[in-house]
Amino acid sequence: MIVKFIRRLLGGGASESAPPAPAARPPAASGPTLLTYRGSELGIKREQISPAAMKTCEVLQRGGYKAFVVGGGVRDSLLGLQPKDFDVATDATPEEVQALFRRARIIGRRFKIVHVMFGRETIETSTFRALQTDAETDEHGRVLRDNVFGSQHEDALRRDFTINALYYDPIGDQVLDYLGGVADLKARRLRMIGDPATRYREDPVRMLRTVRFAAKLDFEVDPATLAPVRELASLIENVPSARLFDEMLKLLESGHALACVRRLRAEGLHHGVLPLLDVILEQPHGERFIEVALANTDDRVRAGKSVSPGFLFATLLWQLVSDRWQALMAGGEHSIPALMQAMDSVLDEQASKLAIQRRHIADMREIWGLQPRLEKGGRGAIRALEHLRFRAGFDFLLLRVEAGELPASLGQWWTQFVEGDAATREQLLDARPGEARTGPARRRRRRSSARRTSANGDPDHGGDGAIADDGVPADRAASIDRDWPSDLQGGGSPRDRDPQR
Ligand code: ATP
Ligand code: MG
After folding, report:
1. What number does the ligand 1 atom closest to the CA of 83 have?
2. Which whole-number Å values give the CA distances from 499 to 268, 363, 366, 394, in the listed order?
3. Radius of gyration over alpha carbons of the chain, in Å?
């Protein structure tokens, strides 16, 4: 019966895959084709596998259990990419896993997994589980519970893509491929396991994963895998927002955020479906700032640097804040209270919708709150340098410069100030006394000389060398270019805090 079930899920998929490499074993007498390969022959280098994942597998195997690296760790190693993290799959139950390690914690309510910790690294270790045909679902087919242990085989079938269902035993140097994942990797093809529409209904987040992996790996999406996405896109609305937040964050931190966002739009996965994407794609002044911010995030990720979600979300919501800030000032409010109010009203409106966690919100406030002081430069710069979030605030300012929102000279001034010794700083302070300017300028064209700056504050500013106070419009009211509906203007009261602490 299980064979029938598997065949139905596969739709004959395994036998369709390209012939395996010579190391493949003939198909097992029963069940779908299981192909095995030597990892080294496929190009996996053991050094690529983290020592912590290696150790987890070793300990489990010594304890008499099966244990494999699975998912992105195998997929990326096979592609010659550095995996982001490593997951381990085993036939040991969570309790059995926990008993074998000194630092291991069982987590999860819906389905228990074990976090095995070595130093700062955590290896997510999960027990093989099965996809139930009679699982509890919501009215759209979304699986609400999938907590039944299963065979390794069944574990492969419940995964999303064939390339994510490869099991690597780093001790025996063996890759197990139940579903033709190796052939798909070679063909650079993203193929959903089973019937794609059913799998998207079970878990609509898989649509985001399709887009993310296609963009990240530059793979062609198998036509049958892509076909249902447009039609089923609206099912994403039923996904709990915290889960959506996690998956969107993965997408934004994939190193291919810009490509992902474009692709999501191409597949019709926004417009009321993904609140965050609506924010990204429906910017009041076009997408210049967001594009610069996402390109910057991509550069950082690709250079192996960390990306802070607070910084990322501060960039995504900036235009809303900035517009409201200007509108409030145009209404006669002073700069700082206006900014406070603008931040409050945008966060009140967006934070719960996007499920942004509180600690990220605190970061966002500080990054935004530093902007007026950084725009001003002058003597206040010395105190700004001591701010806990100065670096992030400075990086943010450089993005605004790159997007053409502030003059290049301001970015250069700060870059030199940050890098300079005490004497240089004094000189700079003399060259740029505090300005009257208190807010962002709109619609300045990006200066061709302003090269990209990295969002960690490693400035690689070419610039034109001029530090003059050019082009900072004194009258910011004149730069306001839109009327906000009145309900967007006054929302939230100024909070009793000083962002420039
Ligand atoms: P990366 O970590 O590089 O983003 P990954 O493939 O490891 O990619 P994870 O989210 O870490 O992605 O998930 C690990 C594995 O768990 C996946 O490779 C896949 O086999 C399985 N998986 C994750 N999410 C789903 C899902 N929504 N449906 C089915 N299987 C999933
Ligand atoms: Mg992973």
Report:
1. 3
2. 39, 11, 6, 14
3. 26
Mutate to test the pocket of ligand 1, among 159, 203, 251 (most ligand atoms within 8 A of CB): 159
Q: How far is the CA of 165 from the centre of ligand 1 (A)?
A: 9
Expressed in angstroms and rounded, the spacing between residue 123 Cα and the centre of ligand 2 is 10
For 87, the token pair is 């997951």
What number does the ligand 1 atom closest to the CA of 71 have? 18
- CA proximity to 37, closest of 161, 185, 169, 156: 169
The pLDDT score that the predictor gives to residue 354 is 81
| 160 tagged catalytic | yes
The stretches of 190-307 forming alpha helices (DSSP H) are 196-202, 205-217, 223-226, 229-232, 241-252, 257-266, 275-281, 288-302
End-to-end CA distance of the chain: 67
- In single-letter form, the type of residue at position 45 comes to K
- What does the mean pLDDT of the chain come to? 79
**Which pLDDT value is given to residue 272?**
67
Residue 364: name the closest of 346, 379, 382 by CA.
346
Contacts of 19 (CB under 8 A, 6+ apart): 183
> Distance (Å, rounded) from C-alpha 183 to C-alpha 180?
5
Predicted pLDDT of residue 481: 21
How far apart are alpha carbons 106 and 213 in whole angstroms? 28
Q: Whose CA is nearest to atom 21 of ligand 1?
A: 159
Per residue in 254-268, pLDDT tens?
999 989 988 888 887
Give residue 146's pLDDT.
63
Within 13 Å and on the Cβ side, how many CA atoms surround 143? 20
Phi and psi torsions of 167, nearest 5° = -115, 125
In the chain, which residues have pLDDT < 70?
1-32, 132-135, 144-147, 272-273, 284-286, 432-501
CB distance 206 to ligand 1 below 6 Å: yes
Q: Is ligand 1 within 6 A of the CB of residue 369?
A: no
The DSSP element (H or E) to which 270 belongs, if any, is: none
Nearest ligand to the C-alpha atom of residue 179: 1
The helix (run of H) or strand (run of E) holding residue 236 is: none
Q: Which residue has the tokens 């009261």?
A: 493
What pLDDT does 218 receive? 93
pLDDT, tens only, 14-39:
333 333 343 444 334 344 589 999 99
Q: What is the pLDDT of residue 270?
A: 73
CA of 28 to the centre of ligand 2 (A): 29
